[in-house]
Amino acid sequence: MGACLEPPTNGWIVTELLSGKTLTEWLHGCKERRKERLIPLPPLEDRLKKGLEIALAMKYLHEQTPKVVHRDLKPSNIFLDDGMHVRVADFGHARFLLNEEQALTGETGTFVYMAPEVIRFEPYNEKCDVYSFGVILNELITGQPPYIETSFGPSKIALEVGEGRLRPTLPGNDDQLQELINLIQQSWNGEATCRPSFSIITSSLLEIQKKIVGRNYIPI
């Protein structure tokens, strides 16, 4: 990454070229929300890898000083490079968190992935990204866009999520996925303080991945 400034008005940012797909396109085969699948669901191992790489990227952002809060984490803002590795992008809504308190306010992001405290215009911190990640991780595991089984529009989804009455449909009963389901539910907990950090999430996903796939995965 590089930058060039030409005061007082011009500035340029040079970033890595990402000519591949977004996570949405990789998972669903299209950019639009659809009930029917257009492509076969990628193997569970690959979906777990994508979840882990997203968590590692967010762990890096949240461990900066000051912390970087993305505030609009969603599959269409996650790109894949030529090696099919995750790149979290679109920092147009991102903010620095200058202390450890809930210092940010204002509704920003995308309703389907937005944390309830953000929807309610309450102060919030980096745990809003953890909520968004929980929704994304569930989407990776189920292969279904969140709330696609309902007839709700974005405003209705926001109302129900903000009131604590709605979360995406979890995977069906599967003992193999139970630890993963628990992690998803912890990540989208209505109480932000009860959500795990991305440090805990990455450690948990590494252990879950080892149990499900049978070997360790070391991201490049």
From TrEMBL:
- Family matches, as Pfam families: Pkinase (PF00069)
User: Any idea which GO molecular function terms this record carries?
Assistant: ATP binding; protein serine/threonine kinase activity
Q: Please name the PROSITE patterns in this protein's record.
A: PROTEIN_KINASE_DOM, PROTEIN_KINASE_ST
What are the entry keywords?
A: Kinase, Transferase
Q: Which SMART domains match?
A: S_TKc
Q: Where is the Protein kinase domain?
A: 1-206
Q: Does the keyword Transferase apply?
A: yes
User: Which PANTHER family does the entry link to?
Assistant: OS09G0443600 PROTEIN, SERINE/THREONINE-PROTEIN KINASE TNNI3K-RELATED
Would you tell me the protein name for this molecule?
Serine/threonine-protein kinase EDR1
* Protein source organism: Acorus gramineus
